[in-house]
Design a protein that fits this description.
Chain lengths: 418, 403
């Protein structure tokens, strides 16, 4: 029989909501977690706003030894993974550790720690050959993002294929897509999959300042992330993590697990056009959607909800709108399509997994989260973005799309199985 | 489905191109040189395997050079060679070829320059290309863009084993409708003193100053490895596709497996590498008698070396030829596994096992090929790799005539 991957547990650490319940409460209330940056002093930066997580590692059982070793994004992942495993029941009971994998995404990994280390060891940028004696003991872990999946593997006791996926802003979708493929192809029976990011650092904010990709609505941070709105002016940086427990479907049913959904289809493509630019037509994203639907053996008209990339840049919103129209045809106008980045910001590599958790919760509860701050739609963006207020809406088949630097376009289809 | 390699490209401390790489391997040449500037500042690690005399403008269009770090240059140049070598007509269907270039640590030198601008001058001095040059996905993105490749695109950051895992991942892509994948590993950390400084506390880098002894795996004097830079890229496709277009098959990718050995460098549990090798051989359908050469991980740390020797004894009770050509040029992070895969392909092709430089005699009861290259009948090669993050991978490659 064909092997399939199903989701049996979710966990999330998001701005404004740690834990799936708080996260969902926030999203369905349409609250925004974007605010002035507190993690460092942003004076002198163009964009001084972000969606931050109020996070106390000790409150989540992370001792000092772990917090010294783990960068902030790894700590987020550890908390989300623990929640996902608990939510799933006992997915690892009786499964040999060699059959348990980990697939975690991150776009920029430990760069926040590297940035801090650099400032110290270079004496504020004065020395090219930095003072090696001033480095912290665990700084090599910040250099190598493989530490993310390694720490999660250790936490869950995985000894099978353990991977960190780093395709920029599609990492969070790709990590889950690869995990599903690993289950389908028999490389593992359980894969703990997700993504994490903590990019709210001077270097990351300066990077996006330099290309004006981030919003400079510093005076109105709560309403700064405005995907599909005529007055949007860029994305708002976010942070966080999400983890999903993927199991082989028949094994999950045998142990009586609550099967939340199936990871039915996944595809990604490069647009082979530009590292940051997008062609308006969205051909490659549309192709990823079509391929993912084909793998799921679903047609375009089966899709009940589209979780948009919806970053809130002009080129993204138009590109994505056209791509979804191209892939779903007339049906695109009938299906709600929303961007939770309006509320939790854009946490780069993590957001794809955070959005997938939102999709699972939408299927669970029959509610679609809104696109907050959408007051005046861009006339070029003419789909049903569910402005401001959540909507009761039964969802059986979800499409989640992502788009990232490098030209990567990804699509994941979740459904309730056949 | 049988997955085959039909194109190969390398940028290594032997220079640009697989011919230069193979020539250095067969001779067992020493390619370790002092890392500029850091010795004077008292860094305990002074030697590296640098790509000599690499001028990106000789190989890459200027508009790409200015917006990329050296790790992407190496990936782009190795990709060009692999594409040329394969003869694939990528323009015929842009969606038919995907890209998966692994990195261990991203665009370090470019990143350090921009960090210097930020902290030395202010946020407004960070350039527009930092956002696309520093991150781990830069190489896959630029290889996709510069060659017009729209197939499945990915990036794994699984340290040294990256290339082996990328080949495993490619099988998943090929099964799902991407007919060909350009797969590689590339890293270049030696141009950034900051990247080197962050690693000095990890205890895995050799502090030796003599290129002849600094990296001597499997010997009593083993004291860590010498870091290197470089890339290798392979074009893989389904054997049927390759046959249909009459491509030259350079090697068959017969089996891959990966395991996790615990948090810490190089399989701290000591059992993961063995397990990965057993599973890769099972998936390839070969027993110990079917493997003619092992490209060892050869970290050059006593425990890691002893673990690997123990694993090899378990896997091959009757012995097997083992080699570690990287002792001549160092470990290039994500480029390390990739260059080992390239070495194994070339070894199968030439029916010659290159020697392990800097190791005068086969130690620890191992049939380590030392001093001179050994001609041999080679049907299959096993490549072993462990990462600083705890991942272990094994890959079985076969000569196309022996499948």
């Amino acid at each position: 029989m064909k092997r399939e991957a199903v989701v049996t547990g979710v966990g999330v650490v998001a701005p404004g909501g740690i834990g799936a319940a708080a996260f969902w409460d926030m999203l369905t209330a349409g609250r925004t977690a974007t605010r002035g940056i507190t993690l460092f002093d942003p004076a002198g930066y163009r964009s001084r706003i972000a969606a931050e997580v109020d996070f106390d590692p000790a409150a989540h059982g992370l001792d000092e030894q772990r917090t010294a070793r783990m960068d902030r994004y790894v700590q987020f992942a550890a908390v989300a993974a623990a929640e996902a495993l608990a939510d799933s029941g006992a997915p690892l009971a009786g499964v040999p550790p060699w059959r348990v994998g980990v697939s975690m995404g991150t776009a920029v990994g430990g760069t926040t720690r590297l940035d801090r280390e650099y400032a110290v060891t270079s004496r504020g940028g004065a020395d090219w050959v930095v003072d090696h004696t001033a480095t912290a003991p665990h700084s090599h872990l910040a250099l190598m993002p493989s530490t993310l999946s390694g720490e999660i593997a250790e936490l869950v006791g995985a000894r099978g294929p353990v991977r960190t996926v780093s395709t920029g802003c599609t990492s969070g979708l790709d990590a889950v897509g690869y995990a599903a493929q690993a289950v389908e192809d028999g490389l593992a029976d359980v894969v703990v999959a997700g993504a994490a990011e903590s990019p709210i650092s001077p270097i990351a904010m300066a990077c996006f300042d330099a290309i004006k990709a981030t919003s400079d609505s510093n005076d109105d941070p709560g309403r700064a992330s405005r995907p599909f709105d005529r007055h949007r002016n860029g994305f708002v940086m976010g942070e966080g993590a999400a983890v999903l427990v993927l199991e082989e479907a028949s094994a999950a049913r045998r142990r009586g697990a609550r099967v939340r959904c199936r990871v039915a289809g996944f595809a990604n493509h490069g647009n082979a056009f530009h590292m940051t630019g997008l062609r308006r037509e969205g051909t490659e994203m549309a192709r990823a959607v079509t391929t993912a639907l084909d793998h799921a053996r679903r047609s375009a008209t089966d899709v009940d909800y589209v979780n948009a990339h919806g970053s809130g840049t002009v080129q993204n919103d138009r590109h994505e709108t056209d791509a979804v129209k191209r892939a779903l045809g007339e049906h695109a106008r009938r299906v709600p399509m929303t961007s939770i980045k309006s509320m939790v910001g854009h946490s780069l590599g993590a957001i794809g997994s955070i959005e997938l958790v939102a999709c699972v919760l939408a299927m669970d509860t029959g509610v679609v989260p809104p696109t907050a701050n959408l007051a005046t739609p861009d006339p070029e963006c003419d789909l049903d973005y569910v402005p401001v207020t959540a909507r009761e809406h039964r969802t059986d088949v979800v499409l989640s799309v992502g788009s990232g630097f490098g030209g990567f376009q990804s699509a994941v289809v979740l459904d309730r199985g056949e | 489905m049988t997955m085959v390699i039909t194109g190969l490209g390398t940028v290594s401390p032997a220079g640009t191109g697989t011919d230069a790489y193979w020539a250095a391997l067969v001779e067992g040449r020493t390619l370790l040189t002092p890392i500029p500037d850091v010795g004077a500042r008292g860094y305990p690690v002074r030697l590296g395997g640098r790509v000599p005399g690499f001028d990106p403008y000789e190989h890459i269009e200027g508009r790409y050079v200015v917006r990329t770090d050296a790790f992407s240059w190496f990936a782009m140049v190795a990709s060009d060679e692999a594409l040329r070598d394969s003869g694939v007509d990528v323009a015929a269907d842009p969606y038919a070829t995907g890209v998966l270039i692994c990195s261990g640590s991203g665009g370090n030198e470019f990143g350090q320059r921009e960090l210097a601008a930020l902290w030395g001058r202010g946020p407004e001095f960070v350039g527009p290309y930092q956002s696309i040059a520093w991150f781990y996905a830069a190489s896959t993105g630029q290889v996709s863009i510069s060659n017009g490749l729209k197939g499945m695109c990915g990036v794994l950051t699984t340290d040294e084993p990256g290339m082996l895992d990328a080949l495993g991942q490619s099988r998943q892509a090929l099964r799902r409708g991407t007919p060909a994948m350009l797969v590689g590993g590339s890293d270049a950390a030696l141009g950034s003193p900051f990247a080197l400084a962050t690693q000095l506390g990890s205890g895995v880098l050799s502090e030796g100053g003599d290129p002849g002894t600094a990296y001597a795996p499997f010997t009593e004097g083993a004291c860590g490895f010498v870091p290197a830079e470089g890339a290798a890229v392979a074009l893989v496709e389904d054997a049927a596709t390759a046959r249909a277009r009459r491509a030259r098959v350079r090697a068959v990718v017969a089996g891959h497996a990966s395991t996790f050995g615990g948090v810490g460098a190089f399989d701290p549990g000591g059992e993961g590498l063995l397990r990965a090798a057993e599973e890769a051989m099972r998936r390839a359908g070969v027993g110990p008698e079917g493997v003619d050469v092992v490209f060892a991980d050869a970290v050059g740390l006593p425990k890691a070396d002893a673990d690997e020797v123990a694993a090899l004894r378990r896997l091959f009770p009757d012995g097997v030829a083992v080699t570690a050509p990287k002792a001549g040029f160092g470990r290039a992070y994500a480029g390390a596994g990739a260059l080992d895969v390239a070495a194994a392909v070339l070894s199968l092709e030439h029916q010659v096992v290159p020697p392990t430089p800097h190791v005068p005699d086969a130690p620890l009861g191992l049939d380590l090929v030392t001093r001179v290259a050994r001609p041999a009948r080679l049907r299959s090669a096993l490549v072993l790799s462990r990462g600083v993050g705890g991942g272990n991978s094994a890959l079985v490659l076969q000569h196309p005539d022996h499948v």
